């Protein structure tokens, strides 16, 4: 097919999540409320970790990075989705669409690697406690986080350089609330079988390799914990359970969206919502609700502001 005979579309039409006005209003209220919890919640965690000296440890440094990434993950798609609920014609420019694809791929790969780094941190803390602060030095932590960012950027660029030149000449409706990479690629006017296989393999490598590294880390941790005292084992298992829960909640939707796509449109939409809205909401809660150090930091912050208020 001669690509030169096709004009590139200037915008795409997003079909959104529902067609009924009442459903649109309900979804608007739900997702606006969730977004207003996600952003302040993650900001509070980041602020606590930066300002409280008791939280200046590798684990909380990585948690602050995860909160920042989660906030960015939701912001990439949720504000436009909320604004589109009351628009009769939900459109997005070609550049805006490509930007959403880039950031969704970038953030997904970044968070996958970051979760591996957090698992490695827990592995060192539990399996090699005497060497923890030597192995997980500030320089090492920064280096691992920078590596995660580089992998995310390289992965996103490798996807985008294949999508941007595609000839989009006819259908421009995307049956979702944002420009999801598999759905956008299907709109191109050419045979995409080989390209889709390559993209799925690319995403598979980014998802499967970290997933196996996570399995290896947590297997070593569980084997070590099984030989520890009941008190130490209980504390370690509590931490690992939180990490494993986050891994399952994040990797599950990503695998079915980008590595092994399903043929059910409603399921794709559900997974996309879960991945971009509920995961950034659940991650901070899972990591902090049972965390004594975070709770203590919140109490110290509250006491500080109360004392400042009384003095003024």
Key descriptive features of the protein:
mainly alpha; Rhopdopsin 7-helix transmembrane proteins; globular
Instruction: Tell me the distance between the termini.
Output: 74 Å
Number of domains: 1
CATH topology, which one? Answer: Rhopdopsin 7-helix transmembrane proteins
Principal-axis shape equals: globular
Biggest sheet statistics: 3 strands, mixed
Helix count, DSSP H or I runs of 4 or more residues? 10
Structural class by secondary-structure content: mainly alpha
The CATH superfamily is identified as Rhodopsin 7-helix transmembrane proteins
Cα Rg: 22 Å
What's the total number of strands? 3
Architecture (CATH level 2) name: Up-down Bundle
What order do the SSEs take from the amino end to the carboxyl end, as H and E?
Answer: EHHEHHHEHHHHH
Query: What share of the residues does DSSP label as strand, in percent?
Result: under 5%
Class, according to the CATH hierarchy? Mainly Alpha
Q: What helical percentage do the residues reach?
A: over 70%
Low-pLDDT regions? 1-7
């Amino acid at each position: 097919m001669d690509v030169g005979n096709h004009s590139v579309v200037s915008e795409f039409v997003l079909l959104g999540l529902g067609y009924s006005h009442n459903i649109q209003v309900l979804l608007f209220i739900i997702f606006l409320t969730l977004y207003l919890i996600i952003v302040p919640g993650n900001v509070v965690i980041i602020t606590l970790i930066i300002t409280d000296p008791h939280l200046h440890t590798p684990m909380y440094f990585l948690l602050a990075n995860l909160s920042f990434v989660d906030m960015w993950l939701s912001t990439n798609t949720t504000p436009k989705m909320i604004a589109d609920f009351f628009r009769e014609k939900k459109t997005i420019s070609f550049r805006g669409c490509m930007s959403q694809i880039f950031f969704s791929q970038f953030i997904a790969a970044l968070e996958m690697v970051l979760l591996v780094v957090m698992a490695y941190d827990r592995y060192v803390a539990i399996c090699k406690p005497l060497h923890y602060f030597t192995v997980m030095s500030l320089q090492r932590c920064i280096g691992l986080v920078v590596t995660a960012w580089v992998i995310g950027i390289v992965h996103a660029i490798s996807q985008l350089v294949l999508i941007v030149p595609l000839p989009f000449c006819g259908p421009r409706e995307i049956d979702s609330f944002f420009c999801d990479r598999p759905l956008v690629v299907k709109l191109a006017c050419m045979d995409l079988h080989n390209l889709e296989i390559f993209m799925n393999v690319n995403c598979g490598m980014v998802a499967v390799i970290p997933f196996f590294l996570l399995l290896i880390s947590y297997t070593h941790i569980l084997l070590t914990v099984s030989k520890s005292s009941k008190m130490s084992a209980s504390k370690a298992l509590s931490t690992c359970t939180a990490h494993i829960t986050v891994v399952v909640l994040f990797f599950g939707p990503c695998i079915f969206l980008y590595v092994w796509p399903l043929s059910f449109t409603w399921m794709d939409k559900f997974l996309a919502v879960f991945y971009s809205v509920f995961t950034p909401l659940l991650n901070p809660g899972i990591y902090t609700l049972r965390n004594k150090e975070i709770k203590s930091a919140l109490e110290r912050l509250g006491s500080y502001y109360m004392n400042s208020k009384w003095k003024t």
